[in-house]
Write a structure and sequence with these properties.
The structure is a single chain. About 40% of the residues lie in helices and about 10% in strands. By secondary structure, the protein is α+β, with helices and mostly antiparallel strands. It folds into 2 domains: about 100 residues, Ribosomal protein S4/S9, N-terminal domain (Ribosomal Protein S4 Delta 41, Chain A, domain 1, Orthogonal Bundle), CATH 1.10.1050; about 90 residues, RNA-binding S4 domain (Structural Genomics Hypothetical 15.5 Kd Protein In mrcA-pckA Intergenic Region, Chain A, Roll). Helix 2 crosses helix 8. Strand 4 and strand 5 form a beta hairpin. The protein starts with 7 loop residues before the first helix and ends with a helix.
């Protein structure tokens, strides 16, 4: 499986925080944003940058969420529309919907080192949901769903490499991981506290509702 090259430095610096686009690499000293010469705003004349406007602050929060889960603008709009139609806080519902994406769950279970790699794993038919092959990364999981790697040598050898590298990753409480059997289970619906990304979802709602 090819490992995509992501402009991690530029996106993390624009967001002003780590987005963990490179998975385990972001936890080490090799993370570019940790290097002293990287810890500055993007752009050549970074010292001349002005204070961001109210619009800019809201836009950055929205972009952080998009980059974190790796969704396109059109996909993001569909998720926001669905969150608006749901009961409860639109911002929290939006984050929960993003967290329920199949590619995110595959990443959370430790089958890959990044969400981008998880999306490719799903696209190539290596993942089964309740015994059926799933090919849509944006598919939303629900409690009781069983996510497993296809019982095929090529698929499991591929994931075994990631499991070895990602050993020790903390799995969120709403998921149950079973690495030796290449499977996991959705125990409950995720909550706002299960979303590790630090952002202000209310600013996102204000930006998208303008």
């Amino acid at each position: 499986m090819a490992r995509y090259t992501v402009p991690v430095c530029r996106r993390c610096r624009r967001a002003g925080m780590k987005l963990y686009l490179k998975g385990v690499r972001c936890e080490t000293a090799k993370c570019p944003i940790e290097k002293q010469w990287r810890n500055k705003p993007p752009g050549m004349h970074f010292w001349q940058r002005r204070r961001p406007s109210e619009y800019g602050l809201r836009l950055r929060e929205k972009q952080k969420l998009r980059w974190y889960y790796g969704v396109l603008e059109r996909q993001f709009e569909r998720f926001f529309d669905e969150a608006q139609r749901s009961k409860g806080s639109t911002g929290e519902r939006l984050l929960v919907l993003m967290e329920r994406r199949l590619d995110n769950v595959v990443y959370r279970l430790g089958f890959t080192s990044s969400r981008k790699a998880a999306r490719q794993l799903v696209n190539h038919g290596h993942i089964l949901v309740n015994g059926r092959r799933a090919g849509i990364p944006s598919q939303k999981v629900k409690p009781g769903d069983i996510i497993e790697v296809r019982d095929r040598k090529a698929s499991r050898d591929l994931v075994q490499t990631w499991l070895t590298e990602e050993e020790g990753r903390v799995v969120p409480p709403w998921l149950l991981a079973d690495p030796p059997n290449f499977r996991g289970e959705v125990k409950a619906m995720p909550s706002r506290e299960d979303v590790s990304l630090q952002l202000n979802e209310q600013l996102i709602v204000e930006f998208c509702s303008r």
